């Protein structure tokens, strides 16, 4: 398993915890994780990068697709616990304009 997800029913927050690599091999599993909670009334996602040391362009695409999927529902998405390498990539891609990002 490359990631895990947990939905807090009370707060309607879903945390998706990524593994060391967030890349092309995670596409289906990541999409299934965020789509699975749509009918549960999710209001916020916390995508946790605390274990992630590598992301590629597929990861950026997955995050954009997630944002598009939930945009009309007003669901917020936070990219949390990003290390320096992940931070650089996200800032170069200007993801700070589209997502709330927190760094380690």
Automatic annotation (TrEMBL):
SUPFAM superfamilies: SpoIIaa-like
Protein name: Anti-anti-sigma regulatory factor
Domain of life of the organism encoding this protein: Bacteria
InterPro entries, A to Z: STAS_dom, STAS_dom_sf
Domain called STAS: residue spans: 3-104
GO MF annotations in UniProt: anti-sigma factor antagonist activity
């Amino acid at each position: 398993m490359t990631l895990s997800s947990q939905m807090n029913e009370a707060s309607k927050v879903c945390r998706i915890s990524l593994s060391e690599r967030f890349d092309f091999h995670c596409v289906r599993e990541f999409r299934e994780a965020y789509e699975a909670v749509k009918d549960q009334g999710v209001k916020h996602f916390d995508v946790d990068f605390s274990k992630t040391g590598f992301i590629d362009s597929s990861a950026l695409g997955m995050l954009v697709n997630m944002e598009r999927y939930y945009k009309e529902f007003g669901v917020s998405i936070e990219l949390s616990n990003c290390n320096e390498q992940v931070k650089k990539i996200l800032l170069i891609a200007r993801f700070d304009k589209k997502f709330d990002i927190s760094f380690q």
